[in-house]
Every structure is written in structure tokens, then in C-alpha cells.
């Protein structure tokens, strides 16, 4: 990999997501050689992916070059590499660009969409975990409306304009809200010769309330907001199969829709060599102790979505969200320095800063540890927090200007089919462009 020898211990980080970047920043000025490996050369701000899918933002404004985050630090090296395997016995990592030795290894590979083994849904449904996937979804939505104009078959036309979003967590709620706003504000103007009022946006939730990780008040209010926007909220229904046109469910309800978005679960991104049963939790996260060490491996650590630290307060690990990943990255940064200096490490304590979700313009729900609020103020808080955590000054400015413009103009001008996503090639393309 052409990385110079150093007298400092080498810390290899796999993954430049929220956790990996927070950790690398902590180590950037310390006495350690840091090698960050990622299969993308950019950090992906996943919370705003749904805005890319719905034409509210350009993909560039939620991505940030990893190299730029740590520019100017002499002991920092980035390599664009897909990690294939970890050999813990020889402390080496196999990648598509060669092998590398580590003194300390940090796995921060995040999570991927979990289709729970349903091959049909994986092949015919859409995931929204990466920027290419969001662009695919954006193209498919727009192509379906173009197609709807061309058919005389009312049944087919309806299916082209219908959406099924599976999963009533923040991703599903935010996407459903954004689609409802497009239906109301943009489609009638863009497609005056199409009866877009017939478009149905269905949000399907397996449990008895949406946003189950938030307070009951937040769930109720979000559901009310969605209904006001015209979204059909289905609860206690599970989508069981999808053939690309029809989604069957655990009840008699069948949805006829050419677009199904699967937002019903994620699972850890595993690595060969770290996949022994005893290392993994039930949902395939790497079991770690309070210092982020993978069980039984002193020099291998895991943070973020891929790690499961079981505590009294979080018996199934911390939520798979940005804050735990960032806080774990920072804590591990301090601990690695302590380890290198032969000082005892400090256990990780998660500070829950709350959670939030937006449904649409002036509509959001926020649960803070001490306060809960919904509506316009919550929406401003949601926007401020997302701008604050977005990496890169340019990105913040671009996103802010876009939001102001979209707010004033009721518009989303990035509704562009830049990279066509034809249905007939979908299975093949889905495989190629999954990442
Ligand atoms: C649509 C969506 C909306 C979300 N909204 C919110 C929200 O509003 N608030 C919130 O707190 N959280 C939200 N999340 C969750 C949040 O994004 C994740 O919890 C967070 O990204 C986890 O950080 P991480 O560092 O563990 O992994 P990630 O940020 O996913 O980063 C993992 C990195 O590892 C790299 N990688 C993976 N495998 C390999 C490999 N084999 N070789 C090389 N590189 C590899 C990936 O390219 C990626 O850059 C959302 C997630 C999604 C998908």
C-alpha cells in the first residue's frame, strides 16, 4: 500500500463514516500512524439521503472527501480500499489493493440494509443506505412518472405512481413526508396532463406505532403530520414479498406499486476473519467490552453501528445512530493514546442527546432528554442540528441555501434523471450499484 515505516504504532481504521472520522480526528495530532481505509473516498451524511432521493439536495452536498477532513496531518494516510479479510493471528488486513499490517485495528464499517433473507425484496425493492442507491431511487421515481404519462392503462398508471415505504422508523417517516410534499407541491405543476392526485404514498410499519424508538407523543404527532400530508400510515402490517409490481403482506392487504423502498432494518457490515460466532451478537454486530475491544482480541476494536457494547442501560447495544458512533470514536481516540502511553483505558459512557425526525415543512418531532416538542420549533431544531453535524463549510452553506430556496419556492430542483435506472435492468443494476 506504499505507506512509509514509522516509529509510531500503526492504527488502521476500516471505515470513514461517523465513527471512523471522529476517531481519526482525535488521533491526527498524536504519536500514532493512522491509516484510514474506505471503499469510498467520501464521507456519506446518511441522515440526508432521503433529500437526495427526492430531489431536495444534490448528492455532492451531503458527501465530503475523506482526504480533506484530515489534510495536513503528516502521520495520516488514506487509502481507497475495500477490505476483504482480517487475519488476527498475523495482524494483517487483506484488501483489493494489497495487504497491510496493523498494531491496532479499528473496525468502523457501519451497517447495511437488512432484507431478512428475502431475495425478491432485495432484487426488486429499493434500499437507501448509500448515495448511489439514493440516486437510483431518485431516477426510478421520476422515470415512473414519465412512464405513467405514456400508458393508457389506468391500473398500470396507478401502480407507477404508487409508493410503498416499508419501515416506520425515521428514514421511512422522512421519506414518506418528502414524497407527500412532492405530490402536493411539484407533481401537479410538472405533470399537468397526469392526474397525480391518484398517487398513493403508503408507509407500512410492522409494529403498532411509527418511530418506535421515540416517545409515544412523538409517534402520535408524526403520524398526525403524515396523515395531514396525505400519507396512508399502515400499522401492524408486515410486507412479506414483492415481485416488482405487487407487495404482499402479513394481512390480506396487497399494494400495487412500482416503487417499494425497504427501510425496515439494518445489519452490521461484517468482515471475513472477524465472523466467528463467538465474536458476534444476534444481529451480527461485533461484541465489544466497555473499551471498544472486540471480545478476546486486545488489539482489535469496533465502534459505531458494527459494534455491540452491552450495558445495563443498553442491553442490546447502543442505538445504530450517528451520535453513539461519534462518541465512541472520540472515546476510543483517547483510549488508544492512553494505551500507547501505557495508561489505563477509560470505559465508554454514552451521553444520550435525544432523537428527532422531520416529516416535512414546519413539521418535526424532537425528544430531548428533558424536553419533548413537536411542530415548527422542532423543525428548526432539526435543521440546525443537521447543518451543525454536516461535514464541510461548503456543504453547510449549500444545504442551507437549498433549504431556504426550497422553503420559499415550495420546490426541489434536483429532480433530475442523471443516471437512468431502467426497471428492466433493475436486478442487474441493483447488484452492481448496491454500494
Ligand atoms: C437513510 C438513513 C438515515 C439516517 N438518519 C439518521 C439520523 O437522522 N440520525 C442519526 O443519528 N442516525 C441516522 N442514521 C444512522 C447513521 O447514519 C448511522 O448510525 C451512522 O452512519 C453509523 O456510523 P458508522 O461510523 O458506524 O458507519 P457509517 O457511517 O455507515 O460508515 C461506515 C463506513 O465504512 C465503509 N466500509 C464498509 N465496509 C467496508 C469495507 N469492507 N472496506 C472499506 N470500507 C468499508 C463505508 O464505505 C462507510 O464509509 C441514518 C441512516 C440512514 C441509512
Structure summarized in a few sentences:
The protein has 435 residues and is α/β, with parallel strands linked by helices. It has helices at 18-27, 49-53, 66-69, 119-124, 131-150, 154-161, 170-185, 187-190, 216-229, 322-340, 376-389, 393-409, 426-433, and strands at 10-14, 33-38, 42-44, 63-65, 76-80, 83-87, 92-95, 98-101, 104-107, 111-113, 163-166, 201-205, 232-235, 239-242, 246-249, 254-256, 259-262, 266-268, 286-288, 300-302, 307-309, 355-360, 363-367, 372-374. It starts with 9 loop residues before the first strand and ends with a helix.
Please tell me about this protein's structure.
It is a single chain. The protein is an alpha/beta fold and 435 residues long. The longest helix has 20 residues, at 131-150. The chain has 13 helices and 24 strands. The strands form 8 sheets. Strands 5-2-1-9-20 form a 5-stranded parallel sheet, covered by helices on one side. The protein has a 4-stranded parallel sheet with strand order 13-12-11-17. The protein has a 3-stranded antiparallel sheet with strand order 6-7-8, with no helix packed on it. Strand 7 and strand 8 (98-101) form a beta hairpin. It is 33% helix and 22% strand. It has helices at 18-27, 49-53, 66-69, 119-124, 131-150, 154-161, 170-185, 187-190, 216-229, 322-340, 376-389, 393-409, 426-433; strands spanning 10-14, 33-38, 42-44, 63-65, 76-80, 83-87, 92-95, 98-101, 104-107, 111-113, 163-166, 201-205, 232-235, 239-242, 246-249, 254-256, 259-262, 266-268, 286-288, 300-302, 307-309, 355-360, 363-367, 372-374. Bound molecules: flavin-adenine dinucleotide.
Amino acid at each position: 500500500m506504499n505507506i512509509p515505516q514509522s516509529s509510531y504504532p500503526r492504527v488502521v481504521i476500516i471505515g470513514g463514516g461517523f465513527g471512523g472520522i471522529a476517531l481519526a480526528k482525535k488521533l491526527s495530532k498524536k504519536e500514532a500512524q493512522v491509516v484510514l481505509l474506505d471503499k469510498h473516498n467520501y464521507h456519506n451524511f446518511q441522515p440526508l439521503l432521503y433529500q437526495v432521493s427526492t430531489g431536495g439536495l444534490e448528492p455532492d452536498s451531503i458527501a465530503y472527501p475523506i482526504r480533506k477532513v484530515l489534510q495536513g496531518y503528516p502521520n495520516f494516510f488514506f487509502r481507497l480500499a475495500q477490505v476483504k479479510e482480517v487475519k488476527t493471528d498475523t495482524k494483517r488486513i487483506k484488501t483489493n489493493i494489497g495487504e497491510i499490517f496493523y498494531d491496532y485495528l479499528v473496525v468502523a464499517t457501519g451497517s447495511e440494509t437488512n432484507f431478512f433473507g428475502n431475495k425478491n425484496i432485495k432484487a426488486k425493492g429499493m434500499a437507501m443506505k448509500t448515495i448511489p442507491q439514493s440516486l437510483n431511487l431518485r431516477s426510478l421515481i421520476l422515470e415512473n412518472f414519465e412512464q405513467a404519462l405514456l400508458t393508457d392503462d389506468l391500473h398500470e398508471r396507478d401502480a407507477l405512481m404508487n409508493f410503498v415505504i416499508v419501515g416506520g422508523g425515521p428514514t421511512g417517516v422522512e421519506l414518506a413526508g418528502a414524497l407527500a410534499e412532492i405530490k402536493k407541491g411539484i407533481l401537479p405543476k410538472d405533470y399537468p396532463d397526469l392526474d397525480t392526485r391518484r398517487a398513493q404514498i403508503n408507509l407500512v410499519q410492522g409494529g403498532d406505532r411509527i418511530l418506535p424508538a421515540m416517545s409515544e407523543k412523538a409517534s402520535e404527532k408524526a403520524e398526525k403530520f403524515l396523515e395531514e400530508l396525505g400519507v396512508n400510515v399502515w400499522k401492524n402490517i408486515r410486507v412479506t414479498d414483492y415481485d416488482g409490481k405487487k407487495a404482499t403482506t402479513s394481512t390480506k392487504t396487497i399494494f400495487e406499486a412500482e416503487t417499494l423502498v425497504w427501510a425496515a432494518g439494518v445489519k452490521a457490515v461484517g468482515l471475513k476473519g472477524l465472523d466467528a460466532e463467538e465474536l458476534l451478537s444476534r444481529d451480527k454486530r461485533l461484541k465489544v467490552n466497555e473499551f471498544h475491544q472486540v471480545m478476546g482480541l486486545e488489539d482489535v476494536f469496533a465502534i459505531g453501528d458494527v459494534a455491540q457494547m452491552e450495558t445495563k442501560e443498553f442491553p442490546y447495544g447502543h442505538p445504530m445512530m450517528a451520535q453513539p458512533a461519534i462518541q465512541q470514536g472520540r472515546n476510543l481516540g483517547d483510549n488508544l493514546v492512553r494505551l500507547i502511553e501505557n495508561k489505563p483505558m477509560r470505559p465508554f459512557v454514552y451521553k444520550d442527546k435525544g432523537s428527532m425526525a422531520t416529516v416535512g415543512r414546519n413539521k418535526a418531532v424532537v425528544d430531548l432528554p428533558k424536553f419533548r416538542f413537536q411542530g415548527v420549533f422542532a423543525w428548526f431544531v432539526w435543521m440546525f442540528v443537521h447543518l451543525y453535524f454536516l461535514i464541510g463549510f461548503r456543504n453547510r452553506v449549500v444545504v442551507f441555501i437549498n433549504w431556504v430556496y426550497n422553503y420559499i419556492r415550495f420546490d426541489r430542483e434536483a429532480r433530475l434523471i442523471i443516471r437512468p435506472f431502467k426497471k428492466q435492468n433493475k436486478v442487474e443494476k441493483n447488484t452492481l450499484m448496491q454500494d
